[in-house]
Amino acid sequence: xxxxxxxxxxxxxxxxxxxxxxxxxxxxxxxxxxxxxxxxxxxxxxxxxxxxxxxxxxxxxxxxxxxxxxxxxxxxxxxxxxxxxxxxxxxxxxxxxxxxxxxxxxxxxxxxxxxxxxxxxxxxxxxxxxxxxxxxxxxxxxxxxxxxxxxxxxxxxxxxxxxxxxxxxxxxxxxxxxxxxxxxxxxxxxxxxxxxxxxxxxxxxxxxxxxxxxxxxxxxxxxxxxxxxxxxxxxxxxxxxxxxxxxxxxxxxxxxxxxxxxxxxxxxxxxxxxxxxxxxxxxxxxxxxxxxxxxxxxxxxxxxxxxxxxxxxxxxxxxxxxxxxxxxxxxxxxxxxxxxxxxxxxxxxxxxxxxxxxxxxxxxxxxxxxxxxxxxxxxxxxxxxxxxxxxxxxxxxxxxxxxxxxxxxxxxxxxxxxxxxxxxxxxxxxxxxxxxxxxxxxxxxxxxxxxxxxxxxxxxxxxxxxxxxxxxxxxxxxxxxxxxxxxxxxxxxxxxxxxxxxxxxxxxxxxxxxxxxxxxxxxxxxxxxxxxxxxxxxxxxxxxxxxxxxxxxxxxxxxxxxxxxxxxxxxxxxxxxxxxxxxxxxxxxxxxxxxxxxxxxxxxxxxxxxxxxxxxxxxxxxxxxxxxxxxxxxxxxxxxxxxxxxxxxxxxxxxxxxxxxxxxxxxxxxxxxxxxxxxxxxxx
Length: 684
Hints:
The chain has 16 helices and 24 strands. It is of the alpha/beta class. It folds into three domains: 18-163 and 247-394, Glycosidases (TIM Barrel, Alpha-Beta Barrel); 403-611, 3-Layer(aba) Sandwich (Rossmann fold), CATH 3.40.50; 627-683, Golgi alpha-mannosidase II (Immunoglobulin-like, Sandwich), CATH 2.60.40.1180. Helix 5 (129-146) packs parallel to helix 8 and helix 9 packs across helix 13. The chain starts with 17 loop residues before the first strand and ends with a strand. The mean pLDDT is 96.
């Protein structure tokens, strides 16, 4: 659970909310008047930080061993004179052409065994000794040169780590990784159940990257890719740690990016940061996107249980979605304050000034091609900067969560491997959002954790589709419930172990699993419903879970037996009519709920609403649909963020007196315009 305390600023030298974004003046070196104008416009917009040097390797080292730091010297000096902090990047995200030409082995090999040509970005091999050496050289020179520079506030290592390589170097590293994990081929063959289809391995050299029929191998490959990426990051960071020990290090992550398990980065990062690009306005309303984004903010806050950074966002529209609508007036402000509300101590953008050419020339920016401040977007950014400058006391505070949702990367990988009842629309991430939504709508803070994190500090634990159960997890769930916690889990839970081997003796967890005892059910079969077919689920009269009437189930329906559990609702159609669809089991001092089908939003709202009714809320009043209330606290004061993600106005009664942060006026009710937000404060 989030600790009530005030944390230091994410950038120790900057005790305010960071406001700025990616800045690429190397694109404008032949136009010094534009760079000078940028300084003026940054001050006008309330910018106090910029990320620099992210894709600048070809400018820093135009030829092998020939370095040019003069332009970076001038840039950092100019930033320091203007009191703008620098998040200085290492440039490994895009290697220069000369390097790929001379050392082709640093280029990645694709899944078909083809060496990828130089181009785009993020196209280097993490196993390559040559690329690692080149990164060490350039990173060491950056750290030595700028260690004491007054503009340096933080290191931005590489950019959006991702992708994989299948070259011989990576193959050898993968086999070495497997040997360290399993020690013997017998252990590996058992974990992979490799006698199936005669896949038994008799020598480590027989193991290749690709055999999607062997799910244990597929999951291990993903584990290896994460570990190899983390190892490369640690290698990149080593000279920075050695030469600038007081400067924090971050890596810009990508939300729910599936290929990398971000929990593995946590011990090696000082600050969590992420790049947020929701598909605003793809539908008639933005509420669903707001809920989804709120969950991702909570994932990033939960990674270190500390304030994080929104290090990239777009002030207008991106250029890479199938359709990229503009943010409607007000949405930039409310979506930015949403990040602050959920624990970010920054609002930063990609990008400051639009590129004149190439792939991102039409990606949104604070400064458009027109080049001046008289635009709608610049006006909104400027107004937000002025507002953020009035929130220095929020820095270092945190939401206080009594609920948590389990969002586990390895579990997602295993679910995506399933060849079973339904191989489309498994929708792990969407299901997590659907279970998170009732808490979001009620202003109840929620952490988002993986299954290896502590449970006992929470009162409500929601674990939808907890398909994989790693060693010790069932025991910790049992302890959580036995000590008074409330657990909610669903269909497709407790089916396989960490190697994707099915538990024997029935789900969830197998015949002797603590999870089976906690939930008090046995799941016999899973029915997969085609998209056009649904199943009705009717609540038991007088149940104590707040369920009423008939709900609609889709996609998955577990056929379960209630052993010690009490049915709360039954299926009412098809051959399994009358079987339990929702149960509760009293275990020790707590309760465990099993939801056997993918239920509609009304069901999730009824059940989770009832189970969370005694949890702390940001505001003890009923919120209009689409209005979010989030609170940050340091234990002495509370800052309440009210955000309206509707296009229409909304009114919220506060129930007690707050003061408006912007002007200090007392207030007991708030009228929000469409896409509007307000920040309020009171003493605890």
